[in-house]
Design brief:
alpha/beta, 253 residues, 8 strands, 8-stranded parallel beta barrel, binds 2-phosphoglycolic acid, 40% helix
């Protein structure tokens, strides 16, 4: 049985005071459902330390939004897995905004995964097709290729070290989520791929859906087969709405 996982990705939002308030209210909500649900937040890099300290006694976990593929050296602006490790338990890798705005390739995504695994940081690998891919019928092939490429040089033996977030690019920030049927079909395609390629952990790896999740659609999405939780962007910035999402996702039906 996979525990559901709800992750809030704050992106480049919040100031220190709003970040701390949001982290504390999310931590209270996470503690109420910790028996059945894992909750994580990914604050901007500057707030990782104060947020981690503020919620240290709660069950809420903190993740980074990105990580360098290198350990240290002349990489201006980058933050390595060793620097994140004291404060974070997981890291988002390959978010579509990193891929499109910063030109991240599947190779780079794979190197970031290796760097994180080397530091025992859990990975949330983000994958997803564009609207053009979906229109041309290649969505599943594109997503499978992203997963294959990202994981090809990593030997995952612990299922909890890997989460895969399926986030169609066209659904992110658009108010237009994937249908439950499409989210379920892609999550199932990813699970089938895992069963063939990494059978020892395939049934225990969590697969999330992300893209325009709100309190209005989360329950149907988390009830879909092979979907084990959600990655939430803008709705995770609204304390009340994110709390509602957490409560609904904890519904164990
Ligand atoms: P959204 O973002 O919930 O605002 O669509 C999701 C994401 O980018 O992870």
């Amino acid at each position: 049985m996979r525990r559901r996982f709800v992750v809030g990705n704050w992106k480049m939002n919040t100031q220190l005071d709003t970040a701390l308030a949001l982290a504390r209210s999310t931590a209270s909500e996470a503690d109420l459902v910790q028996r059945v649900l894992d909750v994580g937040i990914c604050p901007p890099t500057s707030w990782i330390v104060p947020v981690s300290e503020a919620i240290a006694s709660s069950s809420l976990t903190v993740g980074a939004q990105d990580v360098s593929p290198d350990t240290d050296g002349a990489f201006t602006g980058d933050v390595s897995a060793t620097m994140l490790k004291p404060w974070c338990s997981f890291v988002l890798i390959g978010h579509s905004e990193r891929r499109s705005i910063h030109g991240e390739t599947d190779d780079l995504v794979g190197r970031k995964i290796q760097a994180s695994v080397a530091q025992a940081l859990n990975v949330v690998l983000c994958v997803g097709e564009t609207s053009a891919h979906r229109a041309s019928g290649s969505a599943e092939d594109v997503v499978r290729a992203q997963v294959r490429h990202a994981l090809r040089d990593v030997n995952f033996t612990d299922a909890s070290a890997l989460t895969i977030a399926y986030e169609p690019v066209w659904a992110i920030g658009s108010g237009q989520p994937a249908t439950v049927a499409d989210a379920e079909a892609m999550a199932t395609a990813i699970r089938v791929w895992l069963s063939t390629e990494i059978p020892s952990i395939a049934e225990r790896v969590r697969i999330l859906y992300g893209g325009s999740i709100s309190h209005g659609n989360v329950l149907d999405i988390v009830r879909a087969n092979n979907v084990d939780g959600v990655l939430v962007g803008s709705a995770s910035l609204d304390g009340e709405q994110f709390s509602a999402i957490i409560r609904l996702a904890a519904n164990t039906d």
